[in-house]
Write the C-alpha cells for this entry.
Amino acid sequence: MRTRQSGFSAVELMMVSTVLLILVAFAIPSIATAVADVRLRGSASDLSGLLQNARLAAVRTNATYTVRFGLPSGSGAYVDLNNNGAFDTGEPMIQFGGTANQVAAPSGAGGAPKPLDAAGGSLNWTATHGNVSFNPRGLPCDSTQNPCGTNVGYIFYLRDTRAFNTNGWAAVSITAAGRCQVWMWDGTTWRN
C-alpha cells in the first residue's frame, strides 16, 4: 500500500520565487527613496537644532555667534564660537548624513524645486543668503555687518544625490524673529 505525500512541486516553488523576486524588484527603489528621505530630514533637523543652539548660546553669553558651513572633514556646519572663521576643536558642529550637502537656492528648472521665497512660494518674505549670525538678543542678522545689525530671515537648502539621477531636497528657514522651520520637497511642493 502506497501513501500519498503532500507538498509543493518544483514548478510551484519556482513560480512563487519568481513572483517574490518581481515584487522585491519593484519595492527596492521605494525603500531606497524612503531611507534617503529619512537621512535628508535628519540632516535638516540637525541643522535646525544647531541653529537653535547657536541662538541660545548667543543670548546666554551676550555675544554674537555665526553658523558656518564647510567642515574640514565632510559636509556639515558648525558654530564659530571664537569668530575666527574656521572650525576649531570643541565648537558645536553637525555632519550631514548620506550624500546631503548645503547648496545654493534651487532654480526651479530641470526637476529642481522653486525657492521657498520665490513669488508664489511658501514664505511671505525674501531670504538673505550667506552665513547667519545671532546677536545677543538671539535674533538672526547679517554676518557681513559689524556690528551684527538688521534682523533678517535666512533659508538654507540641502540636496542629496540619489540613484537614477534624482535629487532629494530639504530646507531650513529662519524668520527675522528667529523661528526655525524644516521643509521637505515632495516633488511638487514644499512641506513642513
